Amino acid sequence: MKQVFKLLLACAVGVLPMSVGAKDSEATEVRKMIDKVNQHWQAENSPEVRSFWDNAVYHTGNMEAYFLTGNETYRAYSETWANYNQWKGAKSDNRAEWKYSYGESDQYVLFGDYQICFQTYTDLYNLAPDDKKIKRAREVMEYQMSTSQNDYWWWSDALYMAMPVMTKLYKVTHNTLYLDKLYAYLQYSDSIMFDKEENLYYRDAKYIYPKHKTVNGKKDFWARGDAWVLAGLAKVLKDLPEEYKHHQFFVDKFQKMAKAVAAIQQPEGYWTRSMMDPEFAPGPETSGTALFTYGFLWGINNGYLEKDIYMPVVQKAWNYLSKKALQKDGTVGYVQPIGEKAIPGQVINAKSTANFGVGAFLLAACEYVRYLEASQSADRAYWCKLAYQMAYPVLSNMSKGELQKNMLVEVSPNWDGRDKRVTYMETFGRLMAGIAPWLTLPDDDTEEGKMRKELREMALKSYANAVDPQSPDYLLWRGHGQALVDAAYIAESFLRAYAQLWLPLDETTKKRYVEEFQQLRRVDPPYTNWLLFSSTIESFLAKAGASFDEYRVNSAIRKVEEWYTGDGWYADGPSFAFDYYSSYVFHPMYLETLQAMKDAKAYTRIAYGKYYDRALKRAQKFSLILERFISPEGTFPVFGRSIPYRMATMQPLALMAWYQELPAGVTNAQVRCALTAVMKRMFASGHNFNEGGFLTIGFTGRQPNVADWYTNNGSLYMTSLSFLPLGLPASHPFWTDAPQEWTSVRAWGEKPFPKDHHWRDEIRTWDLF
Description:
Residues 379-742 form the DUF2264 domain. This is DUF2264 domain-containing protein. By secondary structure, the chain is an all-alpha fold. It has two domains: 22-372, Glycosyltransferase, CATH 1.50.10; 390-729, Glycosyltransferase. Helix content is 53%, strand content 1%. The chain has 29 helices and four strands. It has helices at residues 2-14, 22-44, 53-69, 72-84, 117-127, 132-146, 158-161, 163-173, 177-193, 223-239, 247-263, 286-301, 307-325, 355-372, 378-398, 403-406, 422-439, 447-466, 482-496, 498-502, 507-519, 530-543, 550-563, 581-599, 608-629, 651-659, 668-683, 733-736, 743-748; strands spanning 194-195, 200-201, 564-566, 569-570. The strands form two sheets. The chain has a two-stranded antiparallel ribbon. A two-stranded antiparallel sheet has the order 3-4. The radius of gyration is 27 Å and the shape is elongated. The N and C termini lie far apart (60 Å). 51% of the residues are buried.
């Protein structure tokens, strides 16, 4: 068996993308372009300029370049600009004179061209929280939302300038008014300048056909105007919650617009200034082309646009941007000057550059690098290898009904004597809860994609065997109380991959799961975190449309609220214990119970949405604490019971990363680097697996003395809960952003780091009736 396992590991390493190929070479070249363009611009232009739209657009590109490259000079340049502008757009403090028609003076506070700066201010806030950075942004936008007007966005440019401000500030505040007003404002924009037949926007109401036509009698869609919209929609979707009631509206608009734009690309790769009448103002234009390219690439990278359809469009556009628009000295040329329309006879050449054109180029180039490097992330490759190493011995056996035959079982030295067959449900349920998000990603032809598909197919067979009384791997669902615990992890895996792991099951298997979950009501859970095992199962039943026990859900919720001790910590029952059960159970299963009840649209006494929002903030605080627990060496404090669960201690941090709800001051790159460091420290020796390839009892190796009386080596598969960010696409910034030092590295390295503070509950809830 040992030789078989060694061969398995060799195969696991072999299938990962380890070689340097054409994509690596191109990505390196594009990175050089980014640095050349940005360093050239910053060398020639002072950051101490006003916060009006043209400068602010540059900074949206500059910040993207910072996240991708980690070049601190770029961040500092934007921070200098923000400080120079006092973290404001237009500076008037007299609300009575605030305007939103066109204007460049300090009274035009509500004009979108003076609000785009808030995008960069919010990015800087999320890197190093300080209320001054977004104080003005919140003041302006929340005042605007308090008015009855919806006509703030009367020109297409505003949909890039202001729409992403709304979603970025929503991410900070979780005030849904930002989303509702965003939708309302866009509805107004659509009513005055959107062409439903073409799925494109006129620059504003002056240009609507047939009132306005090109000299050739055609519809006049201005390339940069529509490019603002497509890029703006991409930025909105980046931060818009999938469960938001109008989410599909934004998805549909983005996809339809992308299709319309792609259809009128010129053979040379660019879009002419008048998109449907190339003869009206012929020749290339860079700012619109770059923004379109960014939108297409973001859509591909995040699963909204089909790669096979849109990459040919991108390749032609990038060929234009990199070979014609980009000049040898780093200048981005062929940028139409500030204006609002295609102008016949206007000369645009290699020397025609502008700050906003540079920003647009940087956005496109950075997103292209994310695409090119998606399969080359060393950190992701390591995570995939480790996840595969854990999962394969379990699923390859269980899919054939041979897990109970072949698993090398270990139990605690002080085992309490219960039936050792509980091991198999613990192994399967906990493993699947951890890798489920990874298996939600679509199939592709990458080596990782092949691994993922293999594990998913084995998992679906394993799910069926788990509830089939005729299968040798039918799990021990009955006759003991422990089944409640690990049935909850199976239910949790379904919640985490509902469409990919629950819906594909055949009706007989689904019926069996419902029956097995419902019969667990015979178990009277102890007055601890076990209440959440009941609520997770029952809330899954609610989401699946089966009969559920409302009392088991709501009583668990009420007790969890009673046991909240503050600042992100939960007590495991009436008395507080200093352990990691806030990680293992409380934060994730509480959030998932509440979310499942929301998904089920259950109407009971409890306002699940408000409870969820409050629980999310607590989870964010606890994830911040966990990130600070990780030492510069990649270790974390070892305390409390169940410590052999290893990296399950980091589950809330992994969960917030997967949800993209990390708190301000904790970035994607910080978390990736910190968790990778811990994984490598913990699993470097190779002693975490026994001779059969299954996890062995211990913390960083074989350490059976740290086991509790209920511990078997199936229990230890809870460590897979740290793999949740694998559910983010390989091209996501979590994987592609430049490495960043986590908090303890900075603190112990005499570098600036965010100060910590107490978080209080601000959301209050009352029974609905």
